Amino acid sequence: MPAPHRPHRLRVPAPSAPPPTGHLPFADAPGAADPIEVTGRWLTRGGRPWFPVSGEFHYSRFPAAGWEEELLKMKAAGVTAVASYVIWIHHEETEGRVRFDGDRDLRRFAELCARHGLDFIPRIGPWSHAEVRNGGLPDWLMARGCTPRTDDPAYLEPVRAWFTAIAGQLRGLDRAHGGPIVAVQIENELYDQPGHLLTLKRMAQEAGLAAPLWTSTAWGGVRLPPDELLPLYGGYTEAFWTEADGGWPDTCRKHFFFTHQRDDEGIGADLRPTTVRGGEPDAFADRFPWATCELGGGMAVSYHRRPRVDAADIGALGLTKIGCGSVWQGFYMFHGGTNPAGEHTTLQESHATGYPNDLPVLTYDFQAPLGEHGQYRPSYHELRLQHLLLAQYGHLLAPMESVLPERRPQGQGDRDTLRWAVRSDGASGFLFVNNHQPHEPLPEHPGTSFEVAFPDAGGALTFPSTPVTVPSGAYFCWPLRLDVAGLRLEWATAQPVCTVDVDGRTVLVLAATDGIAPELALDAGTLTSVRAPSGDVVRADGRVLVTGIRPGTDALVEVDTADGGRVGLLVLDAAGARTLYRGVAWGAERLVLCADGVVFDHDEVRVHSRAERPSVAVLPAPERDLAGAVRQGADGVFTRYAVEADRLGEVPEVSVDLVRPAGAAPAPVTGVQGRASVPADKYFETVAAEHRVEVPEGLPDGAILRVRWSGDVARAYLGDALVADQFFSGRVWDIGVGRLPAGPLRLCVLPLADDAAVYVPEEARAGLGRAVVEGAEWVVVRRSAIR
Predict the structure, then answer these.
(1) What is the per-residue pLDDT across 81-136, written as a single tens digit (0 to 9) for each?
(2) SS3 for 262?
(3) What are phi and psi for residue 707, nearest 5 degrees?
(4) Of the candidates 677, 682, 693, which has an alpha carbon nearest to the alpha carbon of residue 727?
(5) Which of 431-445, 537-551, 649-663 has the lowest average pLDDT?
(6) CB within 10 Å: which end of the chain, N or C, has fewer?
(7) In sequence order, which residues have a C-beta less than 8 Å from that of residue 6 and are 6 or more positions away?
(8) Which strands sit side by side in the sheet containing 48-50, from one edge to the other?
């Protein structure tokens, strides 16, 4: 006989006493309308628990003409704060000539954040890392007789001038003047000099910088000046800075488990060996909330190690961290970019500047949710789904404590034990499950149910009513005892996304998980009637169970509540939910479904789509016709529109002409720490295969040449000027051509020697020994279909 089914069990302890508000010495500006404070477990804003979502976007790595559109894309993704390094060498490559013009206009970038309701977090260094030459310190400073990153007066003197320049740019944009600056980061990854960190903070304040939060990266067992800097953590799915033959690092693997360990000793370990620590790991766990600034939104590639990161890797990482107890989701990078051209030399991290990693000269795409040229990536949609949840329920989640089950994985090699956790306030909560990790797939878990025992009189929940199979690769969040406008949702085997008011009723939108049938369990005492056109309704044990739901835009369960209200529960299928956007347009809150991208900007919506006639669905239906609408029809509770899109124009097919085939691969050379180095520039003129593409007149700013290629390193030249580059990892190569003049573009591709010590994902290795452009197409990433 089969063994009797046993649910996965977890007992929620009685909630601990809430920490006192404002017991830490972080003070907002006097008179701030929504004062920011820090407790020992979460942050508050305007007296309400606050769950920020920050995304890194380096303004000096993206054309200023596109900043506003890209910031709106980030806002549409649920990002509430934009973080950016203020990279010294980008602004003062020549001593005494500090530039804040054009793509370096820090003030304009911060003002655009403010204009669109986004908080701003300048990370002022002076050492940033950011895969920049000298970590961002100018060459002229490195040539001085001083000791950088210490209290050496010869170092502090130019730093003081640099901080003064930053403060001048940001004057009047602090919270005291209604500005967007909520935090300032001091230095980066400096783990063993608390005195120097305090010196830098004091210097920044004396220069005129002000913020309610002063932060520091906290990985590597950092030592911080007591109660002066808020420690921020991170975690990446992959790492470009480890050895080529080192396999998937354990420091990355651990982030796919539910744990209460905050520290990640692997970040920055290329410059700080993991055996060297500044202090004890997680030394601040009992005093500060678990806040992050560098959850991996992707990963850069170095020459010797070129990891690929998939959307599910990023989505699973983000959701797992919420289940672990994070109260601030900070992603690095959220938006990729391109290194600016240097006045004297290239500005990337490289062996030539003493770093153990050789990075591409120009590209800093980072495989981010929004790419180097603003491309939407699948990870953008994965994270947006989580950020919609946080926008709706972050104030509930932030004070909830993370609770781990008694039966949980034993060590990082355990792939068989289900990974799950609950965040709870003792009476309600959210269940988190992660059954995904990169490289080593996790098995499915058939016959899964859960028993969560709460400490209050309500007792335990055992759910779902029929055990389910948790598919391999699935990750999700389910609500437990969630109040929806007076209706108590005991549980749902679908992830809550957001609510919206429609025709006098509150509609909760949920996202189904592929492979798990949606089930809604409603407290019968909080309702009078239920209508489920696409499901079955059964009353049992004081609950109303709705099963058999066919997820989609018409899967609306309508409920009349006991207090006379009306509630809707709409379960979207997994793919449809990932096209859902939320924003205010046409004077009201709207939900919009669109497969590619949507921007809400004041009283208009812009749909970004590569389809000739993109189709969008809107809830509630707008009060006026959509500009350019050509068809309108009902689609469940949504109204669907087909609209005309801007067309790329009469652009000819891409013609790729081979000018010169590749010669023999350059002999491998090594640099710092014996790691493989990028081949010398001369080989791109003598050995590389050269292809030519004619860039036509009249391409829009958002035009991309998407190249399919194989080889080792690819570079694109306009004349003799390098305009794009990439290391091969099996990905397409997107070249931003919209701002390039018409004319011939040279694509030069090097092959890789068989004995080169380079890591590339296994599925891409066959392409390394070749050097060829296999095809190309024109793509537009900023096409506006509705205005």
Answers:
(1) 999 999 999 999 999 999 999 999 999 999 999 999 999 999 999 999 999 999 99
(2) coil
(3) -110, 130
(4) 677
(5) 649-663
(6) N
(7) none
(8) 36-38, 43-45, 48-50
Q: How far apart are CA 289 and CA 285, in angstroms?
A: 7
Residue 495 CA to residue 485 CA, distance in Å, equals 18
What count of residues does the chain have? 787
**Strand pairing class (638-643; 629-635):** antiparallel
Give residue 485's region: left, alpha or beta (phi > 0; psi -120 to 50).
Answer: left
- 35 upstream amide cis, omega within 30 of 0: no
Q: Which of 783, 786, 704, 696 is nearest to 744 (CA)?
A: 696
**Contacts for 253 with CB less than 8 Å, ≥ 6 apart:** 412, 437
CA distance 81 to 85: 13
Distance between CA atoms of 201 and 424, rounded to whole angstroms?
Answer: 36
Phi and psi of 66, rounded to 5°? -105, 0
* Closest by CA position to 539, among listed 556, 555, 521: 521
CATH T-level topology, domain 404-577: beta-galactosidase, domain 2 (2.102.20)
Q: Name the H helices within 281-326.
A: 311-324
List Cα–Cα distances, 643 to 591, 605, 611, in angstroms. 17, 12, 10
Closest CA to 45 of 34, 55, 53, 54: 34
CA 519 to chain centre: 30
How far apart are the two ends of the chain, measured CA to CA in Å?
Answer: 64
Alpha-carbon span 596 to 355, nearest angstrom: 38
Identify the residue whose tokens are 């979460």.
42
Residue 102 CA neighbour count, 13 Å, CB half? 9
Q: What is the dihedral of CA 34, 37, 42, 47, to 10 degrees?
A: -40
Which of 300, 241, 299 has the alpha carbon at shortest distance from 274? 241
Cα separation, 133 vs 141, in Å, equals 12
- Bridge partners (DSSP) of residue 53 are 329
- Give the separation between CA 78 and CA 388, rounded to whole angstroms: 6
Q: What is the pLDDT of residue 19?
A: 80
Delimit the domains of the chain by residue range: 36-394, 404-577, 581-635, 656-780
3-state class of 697 per DSSP? coil
Instruction: Decide the pairing of beta strands 53-57 and 81-85.
Output: parallel
Rounded to the nearest angstrom, the gap between the alpha carbon of residue 510 and the centroid of all alpha carbons in its chain is: 21
Residue 383: count other Cβ atoms within 10 Å of its Cβ.
Answer: 28
The reply to whether domains 36-394 and 404-577 share a CATH topology is: no
Residue type, 22: G
Q: Which of 279, 293, 264, 162 is nearest to 225 (CA)?
A: 279
Pull the structure tokens for residue 183.
């935090």
CATH-assigned architecture of domain 656-780: Sandwich (2.60)
CATH code reported for the domain at 36-394 = 3.20.20.80
CA atoms within 13 A on the CB side of 403: 27
Residues 457-478: pLDDT tens digits? Answer: 678 999 999 999 999 999 999 9
Phi-psi region at 198: left, alpha or beta (left = phi > 0; alpha = psi -120 to 50): alpha
Q: 185 is written with which tokens?
A: 């980061």
Helices (H) and strands (E) in the chain, counts: 11, 44
Classify residue 395 by its DSSP letter.
H
Give the other-Cβ count within 10 Å of 18's Cβ. Answer: 13
Residue 345 pLDDT > 70, yes or no?
yes
Token look-up 């692997």 returns 266
- pLDDT, one tens digit per residue, over 489-529 is 999 999 999 999 998 999 999 999 999 999 999 999 999 99
Q: Which two tokens stand for residue 83?
A: 């973080």
Q: 53-93 pLDDT, tens per residue?
A: 999 999 999 999 999 999 999 999 999 999 999 999 999 99
- Consecutive H or E run containing 477: strand 475-484
What confidence category does residue 651 fall into, taking pLDDT thresholds of 50, 70 and 90? Answer: low
Name, in order, each residue with C-beta under 8 angstroms of 408's C-beta and a sequence gap of 6 or more: 258, 417, 419
